[in-house]
Each structure stands twice: as C-alpha cells, then as structure tokens.
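Researcher: Re-running this chain for the archive, since the previous output was lost when a drive failed. Same request as before.
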Amino acid sequence: MNWLTTALFTILFYSVFDLFVKLASGKINDSLGAAIMNIVSFVVAFGWFLIKMRMGVPTAVTRLGMTYSILAGVFVGLASIFFIRMFALGVNLSIGVPLVRVGMIVLGSLLGILVLKEGVNVKYLLGFLLSATGLYLLMTAK
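Model: Regenerated structure tokens:
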C-alpha cells in the first residue's frame, strides 16, 4: 500500500471519527468520552500490533520511540477532550472540523519548519498562505 492510499484511509477514518465525536458530544462527559475513545483506540491499535507481530512483521522499538509515543498519547488525549467539548458547546460539524483540521495544517506546518527544519519553497508558502486564509475565513464565517 502506498502513502496516498494510506492517506485516503486516514482521511476516511478521521472523518467518520469526527462524525461520531460530534454525535457523542453533549451526551457524555467530555473527559469520560475522551477516555472511552482512547481506550478503544488503544485496544484496536494494540490488537493490530499483535496481529502484525504474529505475521512476522519486524517491530522496531526504541526508548526514544516509546517516549515520543507517550507524549503523543498525552496530546491526543487532551485533543480528544477539547474536541468533544467544542462540539458540546454547539459548533456545527461543518465549521468545527475544518477549523480544527486547517488549524492543524497551519500549526503543523510551522512546527515542521521551525522545529524539524523542514524545507520550504514558493509553492509550499502559497499553500500555507491559502490554508491560513481559509482558517481566517472559517473563524469569521458567522
């Protein structure tokens, strides 16, 4: 499976995830909802890991990889809590999801450039500016 097919599956799964987060919001405590989502996510991911291990797929595990995975888990847990809360406060799915995802593009791009020293070119800057403009338009849509 190439990176684009993987990306399309990721888009599909995150989009359905967003829908269920919106449907759950206001019907469950934010922290409990996030905990349930992340526990189920752990079970699915760990099950996938065990299946791949059983199939003989090599598994790389380093102390640094574990540390970064733990930190990522902390932030995905916090993101889940605030994502549910955002929807519970009444934002529409059609506004909240693009706002969060485009905001992630803008901030993720900045982190890649500033922290990871990833390269930038004119085409990239144009895409970044369009994303930032889209984020501004979404935030001021009402």
